[in-house]
Amino acid sequence: MTAVIRAEGLTKFYGASRGVSRLELEVRAGEVFGFLGPNGAGKTTTIRLMLDLIRPTCGRVELFGLDAGKGSVEIRRRIGYLPGDLRLYDRLSARELLRYFASLRGLNGLGEGESLAERFELELDRPIRALSKGNRQKVGIVQAFLHRPDLLLLDEPTAGLDPLVQITFNELLREVTGEGRTVFLSSHILSEVQRLADRVAIIREGSLELVEAVETLRARAYVRVEVTFAARPPAKRAFSGLPGVRELERRGQVVIFALEGPADPLIKALARFEVFALDSHEADLEDFFLTLYREGAGGAR
Amino acid sequence: MLASVFAKTMRDRLRAFRWWCLVTLGFVALYGSVYPSISGKESLNKLIKDYPQALKGFIGFGGNLDIVSGPGYLGAEIFSFWAPLVLLAVAVAAGSATLAGEEEQGTLDLLLSLPVSRTRCLLEKLAALVCEVLALAFVLWILLVIVSYAAGMHVSPGNLGAATLGALLFALDFGLLALAIGAATGRRTLAIGISATLAVAADVLNALAPLASWLDGTKLASPFYYYSHGDPLRNGIDATDTLILLTIAIVFAALAPLLFRRRDIASP
After folding, report:
1. Closest residue, chain B, to A96 (C-alpha)
2. Which chain A residues contact residue B8 at CB under 8 A?
3. Is A160's pLDDT higher than 90?
4. Which of B115, B119, B145, B192 measures 20 to 30 Å from A123, CA to CA?
C-alpha cells in the first residue's frame, strides 16, 4: 500500500535557524499520525510544505503519491487543513464562510458543514468577528472536515477548545480513521498526542528525533514526583532498587523521582522519613526529552 | 452568493466602492454647477495666461489652457487631476489589498489550502480589480454625460468616453503595478508606496517636461502623457495612445502571476 504522506530529505531553511532539515516521514492510510514538538520546532513549516504554501529548499514531499508542488491542486482537493494560527474572514458569518469554501471545493450548500456545526453547537449566523476563540476554532474545524477529505492536516487543533468540545472532536477523529481516512495532527502537548494518535513523530529544532507507535511511547512515559523532605533528604541508596522508581535530580531538600507503574513502593519507602510536601504530575514534553537524551547518552556509552 | 474568489473579492470592495461613487457624484455635480457662471468669460483665460509655466503644466489638459469652454473646463477641472486621482486611488487600493492585504491578514493561507491554483486565485482577483475600476469609470462617464448636457458644455458622450477611458487605463496601469508588487512581495504598504509614487512622478514628469528642452523627451516615459496629450475631450479616442496604456496594463497583469507562482507565502 502506498503511503498517504511521504517526505524524503525534506528541508526548508529560512532566516538563520528556523525551518526543517532532512525530514523522513511516512504516514499510512487510516492512521492518526501525531507530530509532536515544542513551539517553533518546525511543525507548521512541515505542514505548509505539504500544502505548497512554501517550497522546499531541497528534498521532497509526496501526498497520495503526487508531488506536493506539481500535484498541488489535485492534492488540496483531498485535504482538509486547520491552520495553527487560524485567520478567518471576520466580516462574514460562519455560514457564509463555509458556503464560500464549499463552493470553491465544488460542493453545493455547506457539504457536511451543517451537520458538523450542529454537532459542535456552532452558531452559523453570527459574524465571525463576534465569536469567541473557541467558537472560531470550531469554524476552523468544520471547514477542514466539510468535504470529507481523505487526509486532514491539523495544526494544534484543540487550541482554545473547552474539554467537552474536545471530546466531540476526539470522536470525530475516531470516525474519520474508522472510515480509512488519515489524520496528520501536530501538537506540542504530549498527553494529547498520546490520547489521539496511533504513531508519533517527535520533531525538535527542525529535525526528526524519533517515530514510534504510541504504546511504545507510553511505556516510556512516567509520572514526575517531587518530594520535599522536612530535613536533609536521605542518601540515594534509600530509594535505589525500588521497582519503577528512578531518581532524576535533587535540589536542597527536594528530590525528584520518575515513577513508572504503581506508586506504592515509593510511598512505602518515603513513609520512613519526614515528608514536608509531595507533588506529582505527568511528565510533559520537555521532561520526556530529558529522559530521551539521558537514555540516548546511556546507550552510547 | 460567494461562489468564487472573484465574487468574494467584489463583495469585499463593495462598501468602499459605494463611497467612491458618492464622492464622484458630489464632485461632478459641484463642478457642473459652477460651470455656467464662468462659461464664456474670456477674462479668466487671460488671468491664467499669466500663471507660472510650471503651474500651467498641471492645470492644462491636452495642451490647451482655455477654462471657459466646455472641453477646456472639464479638462482643467476634472481630467487633469481629479478623475485620474480618484480612479487611481481605487485601483491602487484594490490592487494592494486584494492579494498582499489578504496575505498580511493571514487568510490567504486558508484560501490557498483549497483546490484553487495560485494563478487562478490571482486572475480572479485581477478581474475583480478591473471590474471595480471599470464600474467607477462608467459611473463617472454617465455623470459627466448628464452634467455636460445639463450645463451646456457641448462635449459629446463619445469624447467624454475617450477621456474617461484614458483616465481608466492610466489608473489601471498603476493598480496592476500595485497588484504585481503585492504578488511578488506580499507587502501591502510597499505595493501602495511604489505605485502611488510612480503615478505622481508620471503626472509631474508630464507637467514639467515641456519647461526645459533637455527634459522634454522624458515625457514619453510618462503614462500621463499618453492619457492627456491627444486632448481626447476635443479629438476623441487616439488608437496609439490607448494601445500604449493598454500594453502597460497587460505587461503588469502578465507579470503578476509569474511572480506569485514561484514565491513562498508568508505565514500569518
Report:
1. B2
2. 100
3. no
4. B115
Minimum mean pLDDT range among A208-217, B75-84, B122-131: A208-217
Chain A closest CA to B266's CA: distance in Å? 8
φ/ψ of residue A162, rounded to 5: -80, 160
Choose the final residue of a domain: A204, A219, A234: A219
Please provide residue A257's backbone torsions phi and psi, each rounded to the nearest 5 degrees: -110, 150
Say if A292 falls within a structural domain: no
Nearest CA in chain A to B263: A54
Last residue of a domain, one of A198, A219, A240: A219
Cβ-based neighbours of B250, under 8 Å, separated by 6 or more:
none
Beta-carbon neighbour count of residue B133 at 10 Å? 27
- Is A103 in Cβ contact with B4 (below 8 Å)? yes
Mean pLDDT within B136-153: 95
* Most A CBs within 10 Å, among B2, B120, B263, to test the A interface: B2
Q: Band the pLDDT of B226: cuts 50, 70, 90.
A: very high
- Total count of domains within chain A: 2
Question: Mind telling me how many Å the CA of B169 is from chain A's nearest CA?
Answer: 31
Q: Name the band, by pLDDT with cuts 50, 70 and 90, for residue A244.
A: confident
pLDDT confidence of residue A6: 97
| CA–CA separation, B112 and B109 (whole Å) | 5
Q: What is the pLDDT of residue B92?
A: 97
- Please write the tens of the pLDDT for every residue from B42-70: 878 777 777 877 777 777 777 667 778 88
Among B5, B10, B15, B113, pick the best mutation site for testing chain A contact (most A Cβ within 10 A): B113
Distance from C-alpha of B169 to C-alpha of B156, rounded to nearest angstrom: 20
| Residue given cell 505542514 in the structure block | A47
Q: Within a domain: residue A289? A: no
Do A126 and A242 fall into the same domain?
Answer: no
CATH number at residue A62: 3.40.50.300
Q: How far is A296 from chain B (nearest CA, A)?
A: 35
A-interface mutation test, from B12, B109, B121, B265, most A Cβ less than 10 A away: B109
Q: Is residue A295 part of a domain?
A: no
Tell me, yes or no, whether A246 and A101 share the same domain.
no
Q: Pick A85's closest partner by Cβ from B3, B106, B113.
A: B106
Q: Are residues A188 and A275 in the same domain?
A: no
pLDDT in tens, A181-218: 999 999 988 888 888 999 999 998 889 888 888 888 77
Instruction: Judge whether A288 lies within some domain.
Output: no
Q: Identify whether residues A214 and A233 lie together within a single domain.
A: no
Instruction: Judge: A53–B109 Cβ closer than 8 Å, yes or no.
Output: yes
Q: Are residues A183 and A272 in the same domain?
A: no
